[in-house]
Design brief:
Layout lengths: L1 H8 L3 H12 L3 H17 L20 H11 L15 H8 L3 H9 L4 H8 L3 H21 L5 H19 L14
The structure holds zinc ion (ZN).
Zinc ion binds next to α6.
Length: about 180
Amino acid sequence: MLHLKKKLAAGAATLLLGISLAACGGTASETTSTAATTQAAAATTSDARGGGPGGGVDVSSVSSVDELVSLIQEAYGEPSLGLHRGHQDVESTLIEALGISHDEMHVRMDAGQNLATIADEVGVDRQELIDALVATRSPAIDALVDSGTITRAEAEAYSEQLVEAYTFRVTWDGQAATPTVEAV
Ligand SMILES: [Zn+2]
């Protein structure tokens, strides 16, 4: 046990790789198939929305309030996927913003660090991380303003909801129940 702890403390990413991928639901092949699924769903129906992170709504094809609400709900992530509430839908943004590998995120998550704590430890401003995450989904809000589906005032309210969602996800304590996003 001591030996194992020592290895973990040393940040043995390879040791944890198998666990990491299993916990994340984001192996390379799964990521690929999810992307394909999202494309297929977008092509066949505008009603595509799934429960898991990155599962349902394509940011670039949101055309209704219902889809936008789902998109913001998905920003909360999925508590069953661990302290980071999943990585798959935000993986590239996390890697870019935090400057660490996906594997290291899992090592740190297994050590009890939420995304805010990781940001603190690697010297990234928490709000910058949240802003980067928000920027991945906010184009959908702009698109609905442009199409006349929502007003600018409504867009402001949805933007606040999106910030709340990612703030919740980044700072999650592992306990708090996921809020439900409502249409404004
Ligand atoms: Zn992951």
